[in-house]
Amino acid sequence: MQQFLIDTSWWVPCYGFLGAILSLPWATGLIRRTGPRPAAYLNIFTTLLACVHGWALFNATWGQESHELIIHWLKAADLDLSIALDISSASVGAMEVTTGLSLLAQLFALGYMEKDWALARFFALMGFFEAAMSGLALSNSLFLTYALLEILTLSTYLLVGFWYAQPLVVTAARDAFLTKRVGDVLLLMGVVTLSTLSGSLNFPDLYDWAETAELSPTVAGLLSLALIAGPIGKCAQFPLHLWLDEAMEGPNPASILRNSVVVGCGAYVLIKLQPILMVSPVASTALVALGSMTAIGASLVAIAQIDIKRALAHSTSAYLGLVFVAVGMNWTGFALALLFAHAIAKALLFMSTGSIIATTSCQDITEMGGLWSRMPATTSAFLVGSAGLVGLLPLGGFWAFQQGVDDFWYGQPWLVAVILIVNALTAFNLTRIYRLVFLGEPMPKTRRAPEVPWTMAVPMVTLTIFTLTVPLIMQTLSALPSWQYLNWQGSLMIIGSGLTGLIAGSIATFNHNWSRPIQAPLRLMQDFLAYDLYVDRFYRVTVVFVVSTISRFSAWFDRYIVDGFVNFVGLASIFSGESLKYSVSGQSQAYMLTILVGVGLLGMVLTWSMWESALGVFF
């Protein structure tokens, strides 16, 4: 039975593709009489099959050695492109988290998008989304990993642009797609280079090559930067971070997965690439620098947002920045623990946010208030998700931060400060959102807001319970330190930073003046943070301006120089032909004379050098 489960492990990602394919008759409108809900049920059923199969596979691989499945896709001369799968408890566990969260998100979407006319198309895209993420978890080949990352990029474009009748949605989908393409193109350059240098794209072969690789510093540095470019785009890290903020224009159930496991897939790929990145110290420096900048910068930007989804999305970039720092410092244990704790807590936060949006039809936190007594399940979910995200004992976020503090305590104390700052700013931001949305006097849009229906409440309550059990799961996975070896000083600093943010968020004044302060210094600072440190405007006056100028010049050159020359030749041919029509006599001897004169002149031109030599003898 164990061997059968291992041999059929590649079925698990295929369940999502199967659900997407089965939904096509409803998504394309071939079946209309039944409505779109059967497509949703089919996708939920296939995702449930993936969860059950993945759970059985996880039990079969727990405590066992990893297995590798290799499927040769293309063999030509020395080129061998194979699909390699790593069947281990770690990879299968990551896949099970993906399919489990996908199942809960799809159940939530059944109620959230109940009245959407394109429900079947949405669930087909969700199945496509789930299949790519599940395949990434099992992939043991950089070739397959890159292909699945491309599927994720396409899925992001289609899901962000789901409501394509809205101009802002179209712009957001385009920007998200193009921003990710920048990182994907650079990653493709690194993949091609690695294939040439190592002769294989399977991760075990690449690890063996990296141990003995002798590259020049320039080549090694460029290769490592190209390899991290893809994860930078997928994880919304500076300078490719703006797409995640705009992607919040898409449906909320897709945002649940995008902010929990989609960005985690990019970080998971980075962790797989970590042994290869060690060929150059440039990669470590870049990861730590970019991760630290994004972690602190995104945390500051988040506290100035009034759109509830965007405020949470920026905190996603901040936490993934800490993951980049961990990978850059070779502490992959901290990176995996933080990814797991963040994925569960952030999925719950976005689920509670979706409940608020579905009930109030509003995302502006300055127009909300007093929801705690009207939406108790949603309020509880938001509180548990917030506690699980920040360093509050004893939930998962605290233990993930504890491991990071232990790793950086002696060698890199300034990175401990980065973790504490992110923790404090996140606690401040979540407290601010909670006060404006759930406490205070009810506003017109929240005065009669009811609790969400059971189709949305059941997955939300289920994930709430699961978030509370994250420490037990980490204990089972031996990811928690024993009490006698616990760094109590670091633990107190984590708890203190979380409480500092909580207290500051509790006593700060939040009202309509905060959304647009009157005092000039405060107003300028809030605008600076709210507009993402003006990075978007900086891009418009630099990169966008240069590309636009080059494009306009290229269009002008093509129209007036290239096309102009071709059009001139065509007009000259027409004019000369028309002129010749009225100048000929129609007599054959005249034609022969013209041909002889033309051939003679052409011969004189071709033999002019010979005539010059002959004349030089006489003169």
Please describe what this structure looks like.
The chain is mainly alpha-helical and 619 residues long. The longest helix is centred in the last third of the chain and has 41 residues, at 543-583. It has helices spanning 2-7, 11-22, 24-27, 37-61, 89-112, 119-138, 142-160, 167-198, 203-212, 217-234, 242-246, 252-277, 281-302, 308-328, 332-360, 376-389, 396-408, 413-438, 454-468, 470-476, 488-507, 512-515, 520-530, 535-541, 543-583, 588-606, 608-618, and strands at 67-76, 79-87. A hairpin with a 2-residue loop joins strand 1 (67-76) and strand 2 (79-87). A two-stranded antiparallel ribbon has the order 1-2. It has three domains: 1-140; 141-530, no CATH class; 539-575 and 585-609, no CATH class. The chain contains 27 helices and two strands. Helix 2 (11-22) packs antiparallel against helix 6, helix 12 (252-277) runs antiparallel to helix 15 and helix 16 runs antiparallel to helix 18 (413-438).
Rounded radius of gyration (Å): 31 Å
Sheet with the most strands, sense and barrel status? 2 strands, antiparallel
Name the average pLDDT.
Answer: 86
What's the helix count?
Answer: 27
